[in-house]
Design a protein that fits this description.
- The chain has a single domain, classed as SH3 type barrels (Roll), CATH 2.30.30.
- It is 11% helix and 58% strand.
- Strands 4-3-2-1-5 form a five-stranded antiparallel β-sheet, covered by helices on one side.
- The longest helix is centred in the middle third of the chain and has 9 residues.
């Protein structure tokens, strides 16, 4: 089995009721939009790792090592910018 070279991208994902901070694993050198387009043909769910989930007010609800997120509930997603 061949290993696929991926890189972690720290992202914020907003749904109607939650804010999720976690990692998406994308092919090295590809964009977040490329990963979303590619996975849309395979599954309705996106794997997110090392997640912290917040409510609408920003209160921390819980942390989980893995979350399978239904893409239909995503309102907004962006890569975290670090300075």
């Amino acid at each position: 089995m061949m290993k696929v070279d991926k890189e972690k991208k720290k992202v914020w994902i907003y749904t109607q009721h939650y804010r999720i901070n976690g990692n998406l694993h994308v092919l090295r050198g590809s964009r977040l939009s490329d990963m979303l387009a590619a996975t849309s043909q395979k599954s309705d769910f996106i794997p997110v790792t090392e997640c912290t989930v917040y409510n609408e007010k920003g209160d921390k609800l819980f942390e989980v090592p893995f979350l399978s997120l239904n893409r239909r509930f995503i309102v907004m997603i962006f890569e975290e910018v670090t300075s």
